[in-house]
Amino acid sequence: MRALGLQAESALPWLLQLLDAAAGGEVPEDLTPEAVQARTFEVLRHIALQASRQTPLLLVVEDAHWIDRTSEAFLTSLAEVISGEPILLLFTYRPGYRPTWIGSPNATQIALSPLSPDESLNVVRAVMRSEEVPADVAASILARAEGNPFFLEELARAAGRPDALGAATTSLEAVLSARIEALPEACRRVLRTASVLGRHFSRRLLDGVWTSPESPEPQLRELKRLDLLHERVRLDDASYSFKHALIQEAAYEGLSASERQASHAAVARTLEALHAGRPDEACELIAHHYLRSAATEKALSYLELSNRKATRASAMAEAKGYFEEAMKLLDRRPDTAETRRRRIALVVDQVLAMTLLFRFDEYRELLQRHEGMAMALEEPGLRGSFLGARGVCEWAVGEYDRAIGTFAQAAELCEAAGDADRAALAYSVRQWAHLYKGEYEAVLALLPSVARVLDGRSSPRWRAYALGAASRACTYRGLWDQATDFAREELALTERFADDSLGAHAALTLALAEAVRGDLEHAVEHGELALRKASTPADKTWANAILAWAWCLAGDPARGVEILGPVVARSRAVRWRAGEFYAVWLGEAYLMMGDPARAAQAVGECLEIAERHGMRYLIGSACRLLGEAARPRDPAEASAHFERSLGVLEEIQAENELALAHAGYGRLLRDQGRIESAREHVGRALAILERLGTLREPERVRQDLAGLGR
Questions:
Q1: The domain 553-707: what is its CATH number?
Q2: Of 173, 504, 579, 709, which sits with the fewest C-beta atoms within 10 Å of its C-beta?
Q3: CATH class of 181-255
């Protein structure tokens, strides 16, 4: 570490913890697994970056289609920071796998073509150790292998046995099965036992499920010699991998159904023992094995645990997968009171995953199917949690008044039941419902309720979202210092808990406040930070939108439109009504580009939706922009839009946007020759902007006022 110029004392504990080494410092015990992972990733990234600055660094990952989630998450985080660094990440993977980083402008994909017939024949000759291969055997092998090197090797190996020259005419699966059947019985048993463990497995895990009194060591050596297994060097334990997934599959197919079930159960029990007291560490793998055994109750428990773990880590697609598997198991259980209670608890636990995956209609339909069952439960806290989940769906699709009422019931029930996290959810998302209605005082009034029910407890999410709502309320009112203070408090909270999803949300909240105020350099900086941290579809949508808006305000509206157009379309497709804020930004970007017709189209659709759902800030903003779009061609229409905008924005005290409406209306009046009225509106605009300390627009408004003979 010192050789790389890093502080060994602060970095070593994380590396030694990763390697299960005892000495060298302690990792704080009060950190969540997610926080430990984030800190470990940070240390590993620093190692790579520092090493590359001493000499160019090449990192190679083979068979990336088999990668585990944690390794993929680390490599994704590394790929995001190596632009301009002398580092090459080289991955090999099969068609069908799509790396998360492949869309980066720094990524290049190279498709490898199959081997040519001449190259294929060279492989066959090398494996069969003969320059003279019978023409019919060579033709059969080449036709079936289709240039795939592994297929060529296995088919040539089978054809090279004096008693099996005809094997090349069979399928590759049959060839592999025959090869395994020809092994000595002890080797075959080790290979088939290992096949249950997975493509890669540790010696410690194999020993845990091995039932014979003799050691499997001699058989492992023989299987390595036969090129069926490869050994991987590790500091703490031997590790093995099947040379190819098809070898593992062929060995697994040789087990009977009862043998598979028993073996999977044994693996699960061994994993439980190896991770005793730390079930979170391997719950996904334990669930996988119990799911394939007869112990379905155990499988259900570990699927529920895996679902919660994935949600905490913002791995929402994985969380949804575990949920669906768990629901299938519940569907097969007797319809008892306990089954119904467990089903409702599992359904309401999906509120965050479904929201951040933008699956509102799907989740709402799921809740509607279970509402009667949930309301019949004699657990007020669980009923309150169900109402909270329903409120989130109502809020997402713009039913704000209904959501506010639902959240009030949910908070009361959850708080009475002592469920602080669910009560905080109800208070926090209710803030966002008031926010979109333009009820900013209500947003701020609910903030202490979130802090009160959480009472310093560990979950940061709803406290972070509550601070985000408070920051937005202050942003829309032009209270810049309060807006940035709330956003920075949110960002500090998410950094303390090392949660990238929440960190993205905090960064984009800060970027929004800076963009609306006119601090565009910092707005772009924090928008880029939000995009780097974004880990779910919702996070990415929100971060892309705010960054695009910052680009627009910084003088590059064409670049912003490329992002905002698809974001608006995506938001409307999933009925994410808050996405209409992006439509307003899109409309203003079109105006910046000198295209009032497209601006009017984008904002007109937004106004219709905003009116339907009572989104008063959007109504005011949309009318202002429609006034700007209509000003050159229809002064009467423009005047009506501006007057409506002024009325709505003044009513909700959205002062910064109100100033922009006054300025726009003043320009319209100037064009009509109504100089006194124009001077009055432009003067009001300047007074508001100067009082607020807004950086965007004041200079232009001063020039307008000077031109009116102030």
A1: 1.25.40.10
A2: 709
A3: mainly alpha
